[in-house]
Design a protein that fits this description.
This protein has three helices and six strands; from the N terminus they run E-E-E-H-E-H-H-E-E. The radius of gyration is 14 Å and the shape is globular. The longest helix has 19 residues. A six-stranded mixed beta sheet has the order 1-2-4-3-5-6, with helices on both faces. The two termini are 27 Å apart. It is 26% helix and 29% strand. With 134 residues, it is α/β, with parallel strands linked by helices.
Length: 134
Amino acid sequence: MGDDTMEKTVWLTRPDNVDIHLKKWVPSETPPEVVVQLAHGMVEHIGRYDHFARFLLENNIAVYGNDHRGHGKTGEKQGMLGYFADENGFEKVAGDMLAITEQIKKTIRVYQSFYLAIVWGLFLPDITFKSIVI
């Protein structure tokens, strides 16, 4: 990565006290023109998309992506890989995605935003985006 980029990992604590692992790839020198929110597929984690996120970042596109409940570092911290929640798991994952979308809207002003869904991630956006990419 060049000096004009920033990669950051944060934890987003949800109302049910589940910590969601969130990665942000954001240009540090030039404000991004576009932001992409990634939603990985089943049995995946956001780390699989690091190379793709860096490619977008090199083209002045900010990227936000998280490990869903039961996946990646979120699942490791939960101690429950492959398991969303005792009740309403799918709705909670969708709520997590919406919370990340709201964080993006508060921190980055861009002309256009995209939600990039990998397979089952397509079912998550109860979110208003100008564009959804499958």
